[in-house]
């Protein structure tokens, strides 16, 4: 249960806790049904135990994956602030009023706690740090619950792979916390997945997320691997651990992938990445660059969440249009 504490007191308490911490050990569903008065859910999230005696009513979301999950579940009216959004909402995920933005990047504790949230829902575990919104232990002391999108766990319970069953289970857990029905969201995703025709030409691919001198690419255990595999592509970096990893251009040149999956973001657009490839004397010799075999994925759809099925369907469609 969230204790009602004035925002100024919350910030002051969090500052004191931070000083002493070193001494201490698819398309949206219909409107969410009313919460049950006796609803209670207990979860272990990134190694942290959390109990929700009642569904959260005031939520701050950090990263697009969390915002989009709540909107898809019909919970947009619970969002009192957003931060570090990776791009605009996709078609089909609509809100009646623009969601309030706290910060374009990682917010600080003061701006978040001023909204008196009873839950901070983050797509990155790193949000819960003393130099960000505060540690999970500090926030719990203040009566503010915390939750990380499970496939983003790093300190504990880090996934060794990501599957659509995992994502479905995560959506269901979020729905349980809020005491709403996830079946419509999951049915839409299952239908989307069922319509995907994986490419059967044994094409290899590189998932390029960011970086130029050293590219940061989709590795073998995260959403990029799941999306490419679902679309029928073989990831040339699938031997790397984790969801994303640095990967030298020398390795890319040696593998000479058939397709380049390029992540598009406001701060590092796909157009800029393609221009970089085509202007480089060496990288421009890659077969995929010579033949312009580019597949584009929005950054906001590149992390595990309610858009992963949509991303896989989009990649599969774009690959099907590539002529060899």
Automatic annotation (TrEMBL):
Lineage: superkingdom: Bacteria
A Pfam cross-reference name: Peripla_BP_2
InterPro entries attached to this UniProt entry: ABC_Transporter_SBP (IPR050902), ABC_transptr_periplasmic_BD (IPR002491)
Secretion signal, residue range per the UniProt entry: 1-26
Residue stretches making up the Fe/B12 periplasmic-binding domain: 58-324
UniProt keyword annotations, A-Z: Signal
Membership in a protein family: Belongs to the bacterial solute-binding protein 8 family.
The protein's name: ABC transporter substrate-binding protein
Organism in which the protein naturally occurs: Agrococcus versicolor
Taxonomic classification: Bacteria, Bacillati, Actinomycetota, Actinomycetes, Micrococcales
